[in-house]
Amino acid sequence: MKRFDMFRALKWISAIVILCGIVCCVWNMREFNDRNLGLMIGIGFLVGGVQILMFGMIAPLMQKNSENVPESAEEGT
User: Fold this and answer.
1) Range with the poorest average pLDDT among 2-6, 7-11, 27-31, 58-62
2) Is 25:42 a contact under the CB 8 Å cutoff?
3) What residues make up the domain containing 8?
4) Handedness of CA 24, 28, 34, 36 (dihedral sign)
C-alpha cells in the first residue's frame, strides 16, 4: 500500500471514530460524571480517533526513513 493511500485510509477511519465519539458524548451529556458509561465511551472514541490520526501521519514518515537506508548498512546487520 502506498504511503498516501495509507494516510488517506487512516484519516477516514479516524474521522469516523471521532464522529462516533462526538455523537456518543452529545447523546449522554445529560449526566456529566464518571459513572456515565456512554460518556466515557465517547471520550475514549475521541482520544482513540486522535491517536489513529497521529499514527496515520507518523507511519509514512517512518516508512520513508526506512526506505532511505543504504543497502550496505542493511547487509552488515
Assistant:
1) 2-6
2) yes
3) 3-62
4) negative
